[in-house]
Amino acid sequence: MDFQTRIPTVAVLGPALAVFALVALIRHRRDVPGWRGGPLVLRIAAALYAAAVASLTFFPLWIYGGSYRNQAEWIGQIQPVPLLMADITMIPNVIMFMPLGFLLPLFLPRLGRGRTVLVCALVSLGIELLQLVQYIVLANGRAVDVNDLIANTLGGLLGYAVLRAAQRTAATRTVLERVTPG
Asked: Is cis: bond before 60, omega within 30 of 0?
């Protein structure tokens, strides 16, 4: 049976964000610590950021079957050699992960540079592996590229550096302390 189905971004991320909004509202009304004022704003920003990353990396979700199914071997979808195909297209990946490197230490203040970069690398690896699973299971044409992993990790490091630079000035440090949960 030949078929192709498109699951739009809003069909998945819309309800996910609605559930987040409901949880945030309930926690805000119950006066749960970290769910008022600046920390709530930070949590909303993080949720919107996560939805944006998911939207860019997984959606729209295409499912193919029969003769529409991509016939290429899954192993051919992996680019394991670093920087072999490096070009300007890596810049959006760097930019995409800068907010993660910035936000992580705000949620977990004891997280240093090394662990922040490690978490960014692991999140990036998770995205690449999920894209591979999407390709294998749904035959949707997603490629897995070690350059994405490198660019995303670099973006996390740059985001961390921007946060630390911002924390050096009194005015931005005060604002950042107001939004930090806990």
From this structure: yes
Can you tell me the distance from the alpha carbon of 162 to that of 177, in angstroms, rounded to the nearest whole number? 15
Q: Average pLDDT of 133-141?
A: 79
Q: Rounded to whole angstroms, how far apart are CA atoms 140 and 148?
A: 18
**What is the reported pTM?**
0.89
Residues in the chain: 182
Q: What is the pLDDT of residues 13-62, one digit of tens each?
A: 999 999 999 999 999 999 999 999 999 999 999 999 999 999 999 988 88
- The answer to whether residue 136 scores a pLDDT higher than 70 is yes
Q: CB within 8 A of 84, min separation 6: which ones? A: 147
Query: What's the chain look like in SS3?
Result: CCEEEEECHHHHHHHHHHHHHHHHHHHHHCCCCCCCHHHHHHHHHHHHHHHHHHHHHHCCEEEEEHHHCCCCCHHHHEECCCCCCCCHHHHHHHHHHHHHHHHHHHHCCCCCHHHHHHHHHHHHHHHHHHHHHHHHHHCCCCCEEHHHHHHHHHHHHHHHHHHHHHCCCHHHHHHHHHHCCC
Q: Which residues, at least 6 apart from 121, have a Cβ–Cβ distance to it below 8 Å? A: 149, 152, 153, 156
* pLDDT given for residue 76 in this prediction: 62
At 166, the amino acid letter reads: A
